[in-house]
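Researcher: Here's the sequence for the chain we discussed earlier.
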Amino acid sequence: MNTVRSDTESAKNSIRESQDEYELPGHVREASVHPTSPRLTPAPSPGSGIVPASEGNDPPQGPQHEAPQTPQYSVFSKRKKQGIVLAGSIGAVFSTMTAQTYLPALKVLADDFHVSVSKINLTVTTYLIFQGITPMFIGSFADRMGRRPAYIICFVVYIAANIGLAVSRNYASLLAIRCLQAAGISGTQSLCQAVVADIVTSAERGQYVGFVTLSAILGPSLGPIIGGALTDGLGWRSIFWFLTICAGVILILMALFFPETCRPIVGDGSIRPPKTNETLWQLIKDRQRSSSNNSQPPILPLTTPEGKVTKASFGIKHLFTSLTLLRSKELGLLLAYGGLIYSGINAISAALPSQFTEIYGFNSLEIGLMFLPMAAGSVVAVGVAGKAINWNYRRHAKNLGLTVDKSRQIDLTDFPIERARLEVAVPLLYVSAALVIAWGWALQSRTSVAVPCVLAFLMGVVYIGVLNVFNTLITDLYRKKAGAATAANWFIRCMLGAVMTAVIQPLILAVGSGWAYTIMGLAYVLFSPVLFLIMWKGMAWRKEEREKAESRTTAKNEERIIGKKEQKDNA
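Model: Thanks. This is the structure I predict for it:
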């Protein structure tokens, strides 16, 4: 009897998690409950995927006490997961690289179109605006219809825009198509992080999210080098033909092999997706199998250990999911502070060309090479910060007397996930503030170029470390709405980045590099108590939001029942 009561309570808890993280129809929510979905407490059941360290993994003896095992979170092997995330990250590089590849050609474009440099700079500003806005719609679309259709739409629009830019003949078309280019490719950042949420558990998410964060830095680092070399050698139009070819190759590979991972559609990956979400390789193999056996391919069941799969649907109300998430206290504060940190990277990147031209007399290619130290630091950070994030997660689990199973996702309701993540970010944050201040005074003092190179490398390490923590926590909090949550994240970052890009140069002219970057570093420190507030109140805020979601769901179900009863009575 106690066992039945325990399983019932566990099922109720799983319903709460499902309602809070992903809004599904009532009948689907009920069907998606698995009786062994783990509820994290200091003394969880043996089948929960996290067990007391002192008791080991052996369940209590006797058939009446045997608890079924929690299913694995994903059927993909470690190597396949790495390949999927790497492919998604390569696609995401285009979003940030495209913005920076264009910069070395600004003066040439102004001359060719017979307009001022300030007008050409407007195409950079509009790109940043659309880069922030569009992912909110793409992310919400991907959460409902799947990652593959969203990726393919993004790259098709992006390729068409690049071709249009390569053949554009006037400023008006350049400005308009540049907006279309940003709208097409900007969603790939949120899609990549959503893919991580689909196939990777919280226990190992730190390192995988690092690949996503790395793409946000590698793009701005490699873009100016590529753009400068192409502009000098082949002219500015070659930039867009280069992007067209590269994006075309990625699109073909994704269409052929990139699998659907969206959990509401394929569950843990074992469910056959709809035709619109299958890879071309799957369709080819099915046709070959059908021809050889003169029969249709076997139909897989529409359930997994997690429950039923939802039918993909998308409506107008889903377009604004990202905006509704911003009402969350925890997510709103986290995104605002993360946007402040990210805007610092934008400020350094935007001011670097003019500063290094004035101070060191660098040409466009040498300026592009100055982005490499930060890129190298970013690569180092992916491994180091990712391991630190996963280690701190395990440390908190151990402090609770728990052992982590990487292959099984747990209910984070009673787990201090905010502390487990942000404790890694806080020391890196203060180091980044010191490095930004040092960067400003090094440039103002006109030190040897070796000093900015070293500082840029270190900033790459700490900036990526901090942003990696933030991205991982966002995915933890909104695992089933990762696309929409990441899109909201990019919206805030791009808006603050656009503001910082616009004000950094006037600020440097007004107070000098030293004080300009000192103001930025002090802002990091001044607003850092926000992170401690999230660590302190985050769990309570999550429970409060879950209770509100339960109340809304109950009210909707009651209205639905009353409506059906009235229809039946009228009939």
